[in-house]
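Notes, p. 3: input format for complexes.
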Amino acid sequence: MTIYQNLIGGEWVGANATKNINPSDTNEVVGLYADGSAEDTRNAIAAAKAAFPAWSRSGIWERHVILKKAGDEIMARKDELGALLAREEGKTLPEAIGETIRASQIFEFFAGEALRLAGETIPSVRPNIGVEITRDPLGVIGIITPWNFPIAIPAWKIAPALCYGNTIVFKPAELVPACSWAIVDILNRAGLPKGVLNLVMGKGSVVGQAMLDSPDVAGITFTGSTGTGKRVAAASIEHNRKFQLEMGGKNPMVVLDDADLNVAVEAAANSGFFSTGQRCTASSRLIVTEGIHDKFVAALTAKLETLVVDNALKSGTHIGPVVDERQLKTDTDYIEIGKKEGAKLAFGGELITRDTPGFYLQPTLFTEATNQMRISREEIFGPVVSVIRVKDYEEALATANDTPFGLSSGIATTSLKHATHFKRNAEAGMVMVNLPTAGVDFHVPFGGRKGSSYGPREQGKYAAEFYTTVKTSYTLA
Ligand code: NDP
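Output follows (477 residues plus NDP):
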């Protein structure tokens, strides 16, 4: 089998490899992908550092053309790349193709942004002096990504880093190297100069750690778990380096008595269970007022009955497998914890067997949960959702905000008063009214508060806050 190698200084290198396994069919090896070392990482950082002076001064048209070309190729190959994504991560084929289209759109967006780099010219408070405010790129950016969005998250970090003139060392999650390899190959062929984009696949504890330890990495953008995020933060402070963290969530969705039942059930089923619940923006706490509680639980349970859990590539599958054995164990451990804590298992909770061997778990719904239970406080990151019954809107809002996280927060209501109050008072980076907590646009800011995020927002124009540093220049006329 071919080894998909790392790209370091414009050369494909690496003889050691690990297997990329399909979670829908564990007999299938998606491919062999390079297992980089700390030395590979240091070489990649050196290559990125050497490439920075020229790339940071490259013309905006050159950046535009490369980003646009990459976006166009991703779109043209959306079905093939979507199938690759579904095979390595396990989300359903339509979800995976949707994510691939998203990656293409992100490249298109930043291809446009490259042509819109602007500064400000303002008068000085002193006579005969002009002041210019411009944005410079940071230097070498370390990109560390998680497994749950194998093409979209790399895209929303790589595209702005290149757009604003940075060079990159990119380390994807070990579980999902295939889509990362594909987009690096696409960008490399689109004409990026050697060393501008370096790919080092391998273990977080080796490759990721070597990035954290390097004084030559000027900025790290990280998406992943809270635990690893804390390590990135500590190491970055040590090196006086800029960093940005997107971490977990325990996103609430409030359902009020006056909600449209269909809207509420569709939003809860989508954001709780689609993508196998493996989204940082998934709703894992459904906070439901007394008057609608029983009707809502009955309708949601009926909806769950209709959802098909099966091989991600099979037509008709609504929910693919859990990503791997370790995450499956986490999910089933939390199901046991929920039962012991006294929540009522209203649906699912069992492993399922399908035609192909994979990590299949029923969508799982707990009712009679409290907000103090571990299943309501800790991120599970699987298709496991709890319903918390509350008296009224005030208790619902307080419960929604009573969490260490603050990524996305939703409400289902037909009351303008409550929707408006919720948007103002939800302690989250993103608020959704009558929509799933997951599912966001690519041209507006993405990110959270409290334990969910640290540093500037990602995506849209706000991405410039992380990938550039501001310079103020004074000139005597
Ligand atoms: P991890 O934190 O385990 O891994 C994230 C990345 O960090 C991986 O590439 C991993 O490599 C790497 N890594 C691991 N150890 C180190 C280290 N010592 N130094 C540097 N890098 C390291 O998270 P998961 O991949 O398990 O992703 C799931 C988590 O991500 C969930 O908690 C989820 O909520 C969060 N997430 C947050 C999002 C957001 O935007 N807020 C979006 C998506 C996910 P390796 O794969 O080799 O272990």
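The mean pLDDT is 97.
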